[in-house]
Amino acid sequence: MSIAHGIRTLGVLGAGQMGTGIALVSALRAKVPVLLHDRSAEQVKKGLSLMDKLLAKDVAKGRLTNEEAKEARDRVSVVGVDAGIQGLRDVDMVVEAVSENLQLKQAIFSSFAAELKPEAILATNTSSISITKIAASALPTGVSAASEEGKRIASRVVGLHFFNPVPVMKLVELISALQTSQDTLDRARAFAIACGKEVTVSKDVPGFVSNALLMPFINEAIMCLEKGTATREDIDTTLKLGMNHPMGPLQLADFIGLDTCLAIQQTLYEGTRDSKYRPSLLLQQMVDAQWYGRKNGKGFYEYDK
Ligand code: 3HC
């Protein structure tokens, strides 16, 4: 028996690549109204323009009618910078998709209990950070984690990890915090399925399954470059043509964002103390140089901004 997700309105926090993609598939596939919020109006503008471009391409390719595209776009509204998180107070689920930074996520989740409906699902699109830690940060000051209220609030937090580009990648990784309830998990899974995604489940370990496997692979490719084992092109071509990967690991690192790769690798290394996760010096230095990959035009390769 399929479980209803019961999401009548979704909030998406963060209008970067991931938040925009999540808003789009929710409006287009799950057909739910979406409230999109970001603390940068400029970022929202960029996100909406990407959404328009992707919908127009689907119409041009005959995959959507003009009407379907317009209906999907009309389901997305913007919560202005001034309204803040309070503007999401009526949503049934919020998906947080801000940068991969524990303090930032904790600050956001600590404001959810005061601002959102008590029954709303609080999902995070984190790539690697402990969902259990994020859930603990959702408790308002003075509410004990062991109290009924504390347990109820934390039980609504769940990891819902989408992949970039969200409209294209078919997977969502579902992660349960120690505190997450079965009802929250079931509804989050049902929502991801309604967005057209296949769901895998991972334990709440650093990087979950996806990034615990992907990041050492990317890091090893960066170390090959660092050691001069091969050129960037030959490293990428080896994986593309030798293993049929759609992108080589250095191209993929640029695509994900080198700052994001470093943040994930640091979480993996700090969370496990296993040397196989230690970020390479070259990656660290590239981020120090503010070479973040595709998003700002310079990474292992150069891009038109
Ligand atoms: N947003 C939406 N759609 C996009 C897109 C974007 N940013 N970039 C490309 N696409 C779409 C294109 O519009 C095109 O759609 P169409 O078939 O409807 O025309 C389709 O993807 C194919 O694009 P292209 O023909 O331009 O290029 P490619 O065939 O090279 O495919 C790619 C591009 C889909 C990005 C492919 O290279 C790929 O699959 N790369 C690997 C991506 C990957 O591994 N993602 C996971 C990253 S890890 C992650 O997200 C987890 C996080 O925690 C780090």
TrEMBL record:
Tell me a GO biological process for this protein.
Answer: fatty acid metabolic process
Q: Which residues form the 3-hydroxyacyl-CoA dehydrogenase NAD binding domain?
A: 10-204
Is NAD a UniProt keyword of this protein?
yes
Query: Taking every annotated instance into account, which residue ranges of this chain make up the domain 3-hydroxyacyl-CoA dehydrogenase C-terminal?
Result: 207-303
Q: In which pathway does it act?
A: Lipid metabolism; fatty acid beta-oxidation
Keyword check for Transport: no
> Which residues of the sequence carry a binding annotation for NAD(+)?
14-19, 38, 100, 105, 127, 164, 295
Q: What SUPFAM superfamilies does the entry give?
A: 6-phosphogluconate dehydrogenase C-terminal domain-like, NAD(P)-binding Rossmann-fold domains
Q: Where is this site: Important for catalytic activity?
A: 161
Secretion signal: which residues?
none
- Please name the InterPro entries in this protein's record: 3-OHacyl-CoA_DH, 3-OHacyl-CoA_DH_NAD-bd, 3HC_DH_C, 6-PGluconate_DH-like_C_sf, 6PGD_dom2, NAD(P)-bd_dom_sf
GO molecular function terms here? NAD+ binding; oxidoreductase activity, acting on the CH-OH group of donors, NAD or NADP as acceptor
Keyword terms: NAD, Oxidoreductase
Which family does the similarity line name?
A: Belongs to the 3-hydroxyacyl-CoA dehydrogenase family.
Q: What is this protein called?
A: 3-hydroxybutyryl-CoA dehydrogenase
Source species of the chain: Cyclocybe aegerita
The taxonomy runs: Eukaryota, Fungi, Dikarya, Basidiomycota, Agaricomycotina
